[in-house]
Structure to design on (358 residues):
């Protein structure tokens, strides 16, 4: 075990997927119910992968809302803040795995994520302004038993293989259906 | 109040931003710390908007992890599942606001989000496979005191003005810094 990562299982998993690529086809899911106003709640439990249905060990529920300044009741973070959490979490998980695979023991990884957004977009007040973040910056501080350059390369490799960074940096087809 | 939305305040807020567009410039933030392996934790508290610093009424913390099948300990959802929650939450908040603005009283809004991902991408096993979701589908069931077509148009308008849908469907510049 390095960095809490079971590297033997990690390498065995990669070998298993090499031998049976379809095992890597996953479907993740969330179910959301409106509560009141901008307050709503998601449940995350089941997913598909390695050829079969799975469930997380427990059901996870999360509240989202707008703060008062955005005409909500602050019962949870805004949806766009969850996106920043997802980005930091994805990059950090990758850093721990990649460092372990490279035999680097980490002592700390911290990140601060900031996303700039002009709400003239979602308010429909300026057609030249997009609805979402105009840009996002992640700043890492990372410590471990390797030179700064090696640690920086681990962050770079995590960036190059991040699922959440990809869906932000590149277009994803999203279909919305009713009924 | 319609749908728990204070429509007078909503319209007043839009008018205030019309008069002072810079008020709509927001910065949202998350801070993340690595725990062990793929387990890490984010805190969401402060943000900037309407020309000044704000904090949520309380600090929100969220754990992310991988399940055992992805060599983690299932201490929280995966980062990519949080993205699905964010998308459903954003669309649902928009639906409640838009319905209220149009005088439609909703009785229920539920959505199921599914994202398909081929982990051959992040495992580096197939250069032709992207790291993130190949596609995402959101399926809404919505009930209220309006014809099905009107409810469907409300969902369409929320889609057209969703910040999270935009950052998934269209590219966002993401910068990752170390140190």
């Amino acid at each position: 075990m390095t960095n809490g990562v079971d590297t033997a299982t990690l390498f065995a998993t990669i070998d298993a997927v090499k031998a049976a690529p379809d095992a890597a086809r996953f479907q993740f899911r969330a179910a959301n119910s409106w509560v009141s106003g901008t307050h709503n709640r998601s449940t995350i439990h089941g997913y598909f992968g390695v050829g079969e249905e799975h469930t997380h060990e427990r059901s996870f529920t999360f509240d989202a809302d707008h703060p008062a300044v955005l005409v909500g009741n602050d019962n949870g973070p805004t949806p766009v803040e969850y996106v920043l959490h997802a980005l930091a979490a994805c990059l950090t998980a990758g850093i721990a795995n990649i460092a372990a695979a490279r035999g680097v023991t980490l002592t700390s990884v911290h990140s601060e994520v900031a996303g700039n957004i002009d709400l003239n977009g979602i308010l429909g007040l300026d057609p030249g302004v997009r609805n979402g973040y105009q840009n996002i910056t992640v700043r890492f501080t990372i410590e471990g038993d390797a030179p700064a350059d090696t640690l920086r390369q681990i962050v770079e490799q995590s960036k190059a293989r991040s699922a959440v960074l990809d869906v932000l940096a590149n277009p994803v087809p999203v279909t919305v259906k009713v009924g």
Q: What stands out?
A: The CA atoms of residues 26 and 49 of chain A lie 4 Å apart. Strands of chain A lie at 25-36, 39-49, 52-64, 106-118, 135-144, 174-178. The mean pLDDT of chain A is 97.
